[in-house]
Amino acid sequence: MNEITQQVWGFTPVSPSGEGGGEPVVLYTMTNANGASVQLTNYSAAIVGVTVPDRLGKMADVVLGYDRWQSYIADGPAMGKSVGRYANRIAKGIFTLEGNTCQLAINNGPNHLHGGPTGFANRLWEGRVEGDRVVFGYHAADGEEGYPGGLYVEACYDWDDDNTLAITYYARLDDEATQPTIVNLTNHVYFNLNGHDSGSVLGHTLTLKASRYLPTDETAIPLAEAPASVEGTPMDFRTPHQLGERIDDASCQQLVWGKGYDHCWAIDGYPEVDSVLKNTTLLPAAELYSEESGRFVKVATTQPGIQIYTGNWLSGCPQSKSEGYAYSDRDGVAMECQAFPNTPNRPDFPSVVLHPGETYEQHINYEFGTR
C-alpha cells in the first residue's frame, strides 16, 4: 500500500497582462512498504525521482532531474517528461491523414520532434490521486501544434512493493471529433543506476530483446530499409554489452551522426499488426544493469519500439537535483518505449492513427531490483 503525499512546488508565472498563471505546480511522492519512492509532478506529467536500494540496501535517486520546477520549462533533454502528441521525429514536420496534409512545427533540424516546441512536455497537467495511483490529465485543443482533433490524454502512475513503476497512457478524441488524429506517447526519463549525480553511465550494461533496429539518415529519420538486422553491428545488444564498449566506433556512421546511441529498436515478438492499438500484451524490451551498485531496471511495454538515447547532449542543461552538480553528456540513458519514428509517413510501420470512438492505451513498466 503506497503512501502518497503532495506538496506545492511552486506556481506558474502570471502573464504580463495579469491574466493566467498562478496555478500550483505539485510534487507527488509515492512511497511503498519498503521505503522506496517515486516523485512526480503535474508539470509535463514528469518523473522527478526514483529512489531505490543498491545491493547493500543503500538508497539513492537513480533518475536525472532538477531541484526546482522552473528548470523543467522548455529544457532540451525533456527530463522525465511525458512527450507527445507524437514522440520522436516526423520528417519535415509533415504528414497526410485521410487526404488532409498536416504541417507541424520544425523544431529539430529539418524535422518535428516530440510534439513541437511546447507539445505535451511543456504544459501543466491536471493531477489527482486515485487510490494507490497518481493520474495526470491534459486536453489538447484541435489544431494545437498543428495536430488535428481535440484530444484528452491521461498518464497514470502506479508504484508497488516490488519496486515496479507502471505507466499507462490513455488518449481519446473529443466526442465531437469526426476526423482521426495520430498519437504516440512515451516518457523521457533518464536513468543512472549508481545515482543521478554519479557521472557517466557508459559502464552500465544494456541488454535488448531486439534483433532489428531502425537505421536513420543524418537527421535521425528511419531509412527505407528500416528495420534492419543488428547482426554484426554495434547495435547488437541481444547479449549484454556496456554502453561505452562501442559507442565511439567511428566506423559506424549511425553512431557518428547520433554522437552515440539515439536509435529505435524493434522489440522482438511484437505482433505484425497494422496498428499500435492492437497489441495488449506486455513484452520484455530491455534490461539496464550497473555492476557498481548492483541495481537493474527491466523494461516491458506494449509498444513496438524502444528508443535508446545515451544522453549525448546533456551538457549545459539546468542544474541537477544536487547543489553544485551539473549533468554532463552521457550521465544518463533514456529508454523510451514508443511507436517507430516517422510512422505517419511510413505505411509499412504499425499505424499510429486514432479514430473517433477509439481509445489509445499503452503500457510501460520499469521494474527495479538488485543482484
UniProtKB/TrEMBL annotation:
Its pathway?
Carbohydrate metabolism; hexose metabolism
Q: Which InterPro entries match?
A: Ald1_epimerase_CS, Aldose_1-epimerase, Aldose_1/G6P_1-epimerase, Gal_mutarotase_sf_dom, Galactose_mutarotase-like, GH-type_carb-bd
Q: Which GO terms describe its biological process?
A: galactose catabolic process via UDP-galactose, Leloir pathway; glucose metabolic process
In terms of Pfam families, this protein maps to:
Aldose_epim
Q: Does the keyword Calcium apply?
A: yes
**One term of GO molecular function:** carbohydrate binding
The record's comment on protein family reads: Belongs to the aldose epimerase family.
Quaternary structure and partners: Monomer.
Q: What is this protein called?
A: Aldose 1-epimerase
- Species lineage, top-down? Bacteria, Pseudomonadati, Bacteroidota, Bacteroidia, Bacteroidales
